[in-house]
Request: fold
Amino acid sequence: MNMPAHAFPKLLSGEKAVAAGRLGVVFFPAFDWAISATHPEREERLLYTRDQLQEEGVFDIPGISEYRPEFATPADLARTHFCLPDVAAVSTDSHLAAAGAAITAARLVMEKKEDRAFSLARPPGHHAMRVVHGNRGFCNINNEAVMLEHIRDRWPHPDGRPLRTAIVDTDVHHGDGTQDIFWNDPHTLFISLHQDGRTLYPGSGFLQEYGGPGALGRTINIPLPPETSDEGYLYAVEKAVLPMLAEFKPDIVINSAGQDNHFTDPLANMRLSARGYAALNSLLRPDIAVLEGGYAIRGALPYVNTGICLALAGLPYEDIREPDWKPSFVRQRPETGRHIADVCEKALRLFRNPPARPAEGQEEDGYWVRHRHIFYDTDMLGENQFEGWRLCRDCSGLGRIETSSDRVKRSLCLLIPRHSCPACRKAGTLLAERGRKGGRYAHVLVLDGDMP
Ligand SMILES: [Zn+2]
Ligand SMILES: [Zn+2]
Reply:
């Protein structure tokens, strides 16, 4: 395998580097899983990265350690998703390993073996929604969500209060799957920075998507214009993301670390550099980073991943050298800067003072309802969904989803949220009983957040 050029001359120069914070890197390239042999989401994505990390001597630095992933269980997946018709139909061992790598990263941090951890695994997951009929945007299973449900079960807050989590998604594509899963969860702040959905897949992620009726202002989208550079991106992190984190006070910060904002990425139009990514991570200081997209297999991923590892370990990354980088990439048109400042200001206002109702949908019989058509682009599959959230004063509210697709007939999915009130729990149990008796549904699935 041809190695990319050395990105970090200092590391190789014999200067002794010692990590300021302990970092665990969990690595799994999924050798046997690919959408097709030439598909951009394939095992070489991570093989080059691993070679680069080794070549640069990253694993020789005291304080940085490499780990193998554990496997997530089918129960972990069923704890997070409504898989239709079942878990086995929509996942493979590679998905269990990618979700398991995220769980291993979480374990290292939660059990205090490491200060931070980075899951370098694939296939990615942030386009996988709560209901899964197939593959969307290269994703079947949402690795961060499976990890977070595992954390909440295994390492709950010692005081018994809900664990507060922030997920900051820095993939170039909108994290629509993660947004969907935590849409009505007031204990999870989901922030997505991405290239404006009018110019890129999946075409969503606008300011007016700010959460369900039980979690208004807990989903925040920051759509950025094409050709945003390090300057604009770091501005958004400093002026919008960091103030939100400071006010939300999460117990855990998770970064969905997509690397397709890189200036060489073949699927998108942004201009971030490896140094920009490293700077982003040293600002954000996530407890756990989980790799998402990034398809410039030789041009970006090895450099970006090395940069992120150094930043997470508190090591200097400023001397990073990338072969194709030009100083002109830093410069940003003044109108781009003004546009980003305006979006950041609006996002911060939505977080602090969200409207009293979601922008989309309406009230019907005590539920906030909306109808959606969801397209699974990889599997060429259409899903029809009627989603309702019980409007409740005492908890975030029971979720009721009716779903059907080209593969699975109309099915009922009931989500009893964590820390639910007795009335929502009762309503959920009743709807499940009726749904099973009535014969109207092909499947009736119940996800109970408080069940061990
Ligand atoms: Zn992406
Ligand atoms: Zn309730």
